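Hi U.,

Before I forget, here's the chain from the pilot set. I'm dumping it here mostly so it's searchable later in email.
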Amino acid sequence: MSTRTQVVRERAAQLLEKSGAWAQRSSAYDSLGNSVAPTDPAACAWCMLGAIDKVCADELIANVAISELHCELNSSVARFNDAPGRTQAEVVAALRGGVA
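Structure:
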């Protein structure tokens, strides 16, 4: 993991570890439960991909971070995030490099 992607992943983990900040089945939601763009100022909950999009404006670095996660998880990031029974703690741990 490069330093740049490590920073992106840690920032995404910090975003998602807050109570109520993790989402499934959409990149992001607002406080009313509507799907919104991850960078929408009204967004208050994100999936793993949405969190990376929110914290990283550099598309190349974001894509590298996502590719790293894909390899570590041996699964698509969206599939991992949205798996039935998945927990917020598992998602945060995966972003930090501790595969759940």
